[in-house]
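Section 5.1 Outputs to date
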Amino acid sequence: MSFILDRDLYVPAIDAWIDPVAPKPRAIITHGHADHARSGHGAVLATPETIAIMQVRYGEDSAGRFEALRFGEVLSIEGAKVSLHPAGHILGSAQVRIEAEGQRALVTGDYKRLPDRTAEPYEPVACDLLVTEATFGLPVFQHPHPMDEIARLLKSVADQPERCHLVGCYALGKAQRVIALLRDAGWNRPIYLHGAMIELCALYEELGVPLGELLPATGMPKAAMAGQIVIAPPSAIRDRWSRRFPDPVVCQASGWMSIKQRARQALVELPLVISDHCDWGELNTSILESGAETVWVTHGREDALVYWCRQQGLAAEPLALPGLDDDGGEGGA
């Protein structure tokens, strides 16, 4: 059977690619992480938030032109209909639905189902062909509730007031989510930021996501940082930059922190299992909810999810896409 979408996520009916690796004349971008959003395309179609993120990261002229499409709006192009639907992964992240030739294809990009006030809530979308990520596509992955992980962090801060807690997380999406979770858990004190976090946190605030009082970590007296929480890239908390803080507790927020060996290898003292992707059960639920008869699985642990889909009577196969980060977005899993 031929589909309106090919295995490079090219849509012939509208001559456009979804999240292409190389510059293309026309691209539809699901979200702002660098393994999905790249500069140099002739024209980019994306949500207004994703366009704002791309322009902050890559420059105002990082594409020939940008066209914003809000969630739920339908754009008709050469007999096909294109619509974007919330993916819940980060701010502005979208699933792309293409309707043409009597078929409905849906490309999820990266997605999560858990509530997150720094991202628009995930929306189930009906389709015939579903392209789903599988970053955590193994039954062993069952993510805990993120507020339970934040409670562990705050307990550690309370138990060790003489130490500074450095939380390693990716600058786009994860940092803002961790800050929002801390605020929702009652942490009303300033949160300190590595310089790599400042610009994107400011953009989130500008786009209507309140994050509370944020201060640069650089330049603060060492003694003043006892009992404080600092958000920084994972690489920074393990290099010389971290030495400016008093006896730091190295933390990292990622779905991968459920794998103890990964946490040990990263020299993480307090792993926080906070994921911006679906776990195994959520992937199963999403696939069944879509009503799709055909499922292409990409971006992670394809084999187990393909096998599960086939057990449900679905036509499923792995889809190897070049350039996608196994961590789900520059370490943003």
